[in-house]
Amino acid sequence: MSVILKEYERIIIGIDPGTNIMGYGILGVKGKKPVNIAMGVIQLSKFESHYMRLNRIYTRVLGLVEQYLPDEMAIEAPFFGKNVQSMLKLGRAQGVAMAAALSRQVPITEYEPRKIKMAITGSGAASKEQVREMIRRQLNLSVEELPVLLDATDALAAALCHFYESSRPQFEKGCRSWKEFIAKNPDKVSR
């Protein structure tokens, strides 16, 4: 394992699936602070065959998993559109990326695009440019560090969304009635 990776308590890989361009982002966590480790895109448009694109997705995502050894994967869920063929291809791309992570026992969490945008910008209807700018600010990145293609910052946004969601304190669900409370807490009830 790289010395640099050892300084992080947790590493999250984010994936923005695509059939022409797939974005990825690697987020490290030190204490309660997220840090950008890497981000980029996997260019797929040079492959004419959809099956060759799927193969490229698998090998590149597997390579990223083996290079950065993420503890978790956050992946953007396909949104429902009108073009069924596009949705099918996008779902396959997402599934192949997930299979690469699962082959190395990396747990996966899916997030809807609106949820990611809400977590990063406060608006589920934010533009890709707004997401990019908020990623830049939240991770203290310079404009020069940002890639030209927005797929990379979208992927990093998925990882950052997962960091926020998984870092929230989890509260135990309360009792629905006094009867249930008494049954669960007999030592707290005087008779």
CATH architecture: 2-Layer Sandwich
Q: CATH-wise, what's the superfamily? A: Ribonuclease H-like superfamily/Ribonuclease H
Radius of gyration: 20 Å
Structural class: alpha/beta
Helical residue percent band: 40-55%
End-to-end gap: 60 Å
Strand order of the biggest β-sheet: 3-2-1-4-5
For the biggest sheet, the summary is: 5 strands, mixed
Mean pLDDT: 91
Q: Helices, strands, pairings?
A:
Layout: H1 3-6, E1 10-16, E2 21-30, E3 33-43, H2 50-68, E4 72-76, H3 84-102, E5 108-111, H4 113-121, H5 128-138, H6 150-167, H7 178-184
Parallel strand pairs: 1-4, 4-5
Antiparallel strand pairs: 1-2, 2-3
Short overview:
This protein is of the alpha/beta class and 191 residues long. 46% of the residues lie in helices and 19% in strands.
Question: Can you tell me about this structure?
Answer:
This protein is α/β, with parallel strands linked by helices and 191 residues long. It has a single domain, classed as Nucleotidyltransferase, domain 5 (2-Layer Sandwich), CATH 3.30.420. It contains 7 helices and 5 strands, in the order αβββαβαβαααα. A 5-stranded mixed sheet has the order 3-2-1-4-5. The longest helix is centred in the N-terminal third of the chain and has 19 residues. The relative contact order is 0.18.
